[in-house]
Design brief:
The chain is mostly helical. It contains 14 helices and no strands. The chain folds into 2 domains: 1-116, Farnesyl Diphosphate Synthase, CATH 1.10.600.10; 118-296, Farnesyl Diphosphate Synthase (Orthogonal Bundle). The chain has helices spanning 3-17, 32-53, 59-77, 84-96, 101-115, 123-133, 135-144, 150-170, 172-177, 185-190, 205-223, 226-229, 232-254, 268-290. α2 packs antiparallel against α7 and α5 (101-115) packs across α6 (123-133). The longest helix has 23 residues, at 232-254. It is globular and about 60 Å long.
Amino acid sequence: MTKEIIAAYRQCKKVALGHYENFPVGSLLLPQHLRNHIFALYAFMRSADDFADLPHRTKKERVALLEDWRQKLHDAFKGNAQVPTFVALQDTVQKFDLPIEPFSLLLDAFTFDAEARVEFPTYDDLHWYTARSAEPVGQLVLALFGYRDAECIRCSNDICTALQLINFLQDAKEDLVNGRCYFPKVDYTSFGISTAHEILTSPYSSKLILFESERVERLLESGAHLPSLVRGRLRFELKAVLAGAQIMIKKIRDLHGDTLRHRPTLSRFEKTKIIISGFAASQDFYRTRAVGTHDE
């Protein structure tokens, strides 16, 4: 690996670890040899997400930044990467034969954020968005581990959409204040709420959030057997992610759905506990394999 590529991965790691996330990025549960590649994927996505949200830029400027990012992506897939994020990403793409489609879908979602008033008439419309903003992430991570079969991808898609919906429930107040509504209109009108902005003050907003939480739980249940379809530390990373999601749903329920006044988060202790329990389980798995038995 050249000095340029090493420096590029180091920069990606800095970007990845410089942002708060409920669910660990490149945690100790992931094999050491894959962490830099996870950081490269995340740096690509985090930077694009930031472009879409720049408050001091016009819509036209934000879209232009994302189009430039898209051109850099195509350059990387042609082997012509120039800037650190794409130097690292190009190396990852080449080593794992990653397709460009998931990256392009992610950029479609970020461009949608940058240029549109974010609102969705139905859940199918919202899922159109999460199929671009969240599901490609899981597909790419699975590909790094060598999993590209349809059932793994289906389960991963459900989990990734569920995780994004949890984030929407956490950040509902901020999003609504900024004119972004991730509640399907058909859902909030069923609770007698006329407009997206009224969600902020409606006495029924907590019931709406609990209703959306039930959808999240169904998605998590649909994807819950994904850990059993994979091997090694990925299994325990996925179990940790699912555990984190379940804790978040419980927090939302304990708040009686009132995430507009109280933003639920995982504490440092909770995140550490999840990672440690998963890491201990992964160590037990490898000790078991070492004496000639299997867990599957």
